[in-house]
Amino acid sequence: MESVAKMIDHSLLRPELTLDDVRAGCALAARYEVASVCVRPCDVTEAVALLHGTGVLVGTVAGFPHGSTTTAAKVAETALARAQGAAEIDMVLNIGRLRSGDVTTVESDIRAVVEAAGGATVKVILENAYLTDAEKIAGCEAAERAGAHYVKTSTGFAAGGATMADLALMRAAVSPKVKIKAAGGVRTLDILLAMADIGVTRFGATATAAILDDLAHRREHGRPQATATATDSGY
Amino acid sequence: MESVAKMIDHSLLRPELTLDDVRAGCALAARYEVASVCVRPCDVTEAVALLHGTGVLVGTVAGFPHGSTTTAAKVAETALARAQGAAEIDMVLNIGRLRSGDVTTVESDIRAVVEAAGGATVKVILENAYLTDAEKIAGCEAAERAGAHYVKTSTGFAAGGATMADLALMRAAVSPKVKIKAAGGVRTLDILLAMADIGVTRFGATATAAILDDLAHRREHGRPQATATATDSGY
Asked: What domains appear along chain B, each with residue ranges and CATH number?
């Protein structure tokens, strides 16, 4: 199960999550040995303490979910998160500037976060729901030029999430050294496997337990579970 | 019309707005002589330049829309926005901590923003859609203790916006020196007037033109427009 589990960022980003929800989510992430938790900035310190020694990384977000904060604010968030022990930063690019055709600003905004991250993994969220295909491609290219490690489809908070068409488009828009993360709507193992098939290597998910329980069941019984009995904590 | 117009913060917060959308929104705000525009942090400099001399204030947001950034990040956003000329700050309180019963953290988070604002108006967004009535009251009380000037119902980006019941509850939860702002769903003059009747003094709106055109029509003709012909730009 490890190879699939290590493709999952267990998402703990909903604004209404309590501290108990965050703690339960970190425990779940440790139990399933996922790649990382993706927590809210205010939870980084807690998550780093909880996951120390488990092999599960702590990631957080910058400029999330709208991407319309200043570059200075995204940089400050990134620097603080790194100082608090976050290993990965999922930033939202400036959607409005991308839609205005100002790719220069979009790129410099990303580059500043990459520099503030000091070598840590940076994933650039495009929020495809708001973009034309040409804008998605321009955003991917800007992210690669700025030194980002991943391009990511969505925050999970807009009207639409990851689609197969967008993932194929993004995979084609960047060179092989830039990886692809799908988020928003990755709710089942079948969806995850289909996306992995076209080159997606990281998944933002809240249905982590359901996905990995299904995988374990298939490996044991050679077929999917008849009914979805695996629990999804919903965050 | 001025008294109603001067109760409206024309909202320009949607992440997908282009620079042309922001410029058109600022021009509309100047034409209708509203209280302020509420722009994204990345647009403060542009809006301040555009609205100089018009009497329309520029406001922006901090920790928006989830409220789950760190206090340090909200303070940095507030200080930068003030330095760039923003006169009002609409901050989102830490929803998750409020729901965890950690009112101390919620209050100190707000107080730090009030201090960083240096006397500028601070409005505290509760995001009522996620809160019980007891949590709404606790949030209002924390905002007043922290020195905030307004409590505000919603960001406009959660599942629910301002309701009459919540506004009455919030009005009762704070002393008369704390004002109330309604946002999310303030789409018609009738809604605005009903809310003003129970003590709301500021409204976040995107349908500013429709609301104020309707008001002008009623004053001229003594009755509402037969059909809603006023245009709503939608942002």
From this structure: 59-201+214-221 (3.20.20.70)
